[in-house]
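Box 3.1 A note on notation
Throughout this textbook, protein chains are presented in two layers. The first layer is the amino acid sequence; the second is a token string describing backbone geometry. Keep the layers aligned when reading.
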Amino acid sequence: PGRRGGGRGMEVRGVARRKKNQLPARIAGLVLVIAVALLAYLLADRDGSPLDDIIGDGGTATTEPSVGAGAGEPGSALAALDALPVQEPIESPPYERDEFGAAWADVDDNGCDTRNDILQRDLRSTTLGQDGCTVLTGELTDPYTTRIIRFDRERNASAVQIDHVVSLSDAWQTGAYAWTDERREAFANDPENLLAVDGPTNVSKSDKNAAEWLPPADSYHCPLVARQVGLKTRYGLWVTPEEAEAMRRVLTTCPDQPVLGGAGPSQP
């Protein structure tokens, strides 16, 4: 009887040991099941999931910013471009220069027209007429070509012209058609939108936007596009899809380029 009782005791203790040894394995299995379920839940395609920001189509992870958003540092022209609305131009009503008021009006009431104000600002070694306004001669370092141009009003007044950085036609088709007459006149005479430049180069630019024309001098691509972005931001204009793409192509070569023409007096 003692041996039979001892055997049963050993059998009970053996079963207890086996159950004790199986417990960690069961816990490990349960943890694995929970982990798999949690991973499946996180990877599920849910609207608003944080993973949507880093997982592209097909489940490929990427850390690159999406095209047209978040690529520029705050205050940069690239960041300002990200915020501009993009849509096709308005072709009707048709553009008319008269909609922007008389050419080169004296909007700041300083007694000089806008053309001569800009010539005095951008040219050096200028001489003025008896009226104290009309620029007779001067020297310009043309930003579009880097050429030095000697301006002589009597000999060749068109050698230096005043360019609208954002042309009036482009502005009209991207929002200015809906402005008041006063706002259009202010835009046409805004010093931030005006540059004294080489005459023939200005003729080649005409009313083209960044998708259609960039200056011959590569060094001025970024400043020009940054000024266009700043002006369109300031005046609430939009960019066309082709224009936005061309602007981004330029500004990604100079991501720290500050936005230009984006600050100034409030407009009517």
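The radius of gyration is 34 Å. The chain has nine helices and five strands.
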